[in-house]
Write a structure and sequence with these properties.
Elements lengths: L1 H46 L8 H17 L4 H14 L1
């Protein structure tokens, strides 16, 4: 009987570790998706014709989104600064 109890504890612990690791992977995937979406938006703007420059409101919205990603830890300070510079140059 003690063997079965020990096996149940080990199995339960392994299950918990697996779920925790999967949750971490899911969070990383979501963060990567946010980064990819932001980069896609910037690529679209760069490909847009020069006759339609980005407005100040659009730039502010992007800066706000970028700051949110920095605050969430999705972006490093260096990545934030680089992307911020791109946005400011497009205004």
């Amino acid at each position: 009987m003690p063997f079965l109890l020990r096996a149940a504890v080990v199995g339960g612990a392994a299950y918990h570790v697996g779920k925790t690791r999967q949750a971490g992977r899911d969070q990383e995937a979501a963060q990567q998706q946010q980064i990819d979406d932001l980069q896609a938006q910037q690529d679209q703007q760069q490909a847009a014709p020069a006759a339609a420059p980005a407005g100040d409101e659009d730039g502010m919205a992007k800066l706000t989104q970028l700051k949110s990603l920095l605050d969430q830890g999705v972006l490093t300070q260096a990545e934030f600064d680089m992307q911020k510079q791109k946005i400011l140059m497009s205004l």
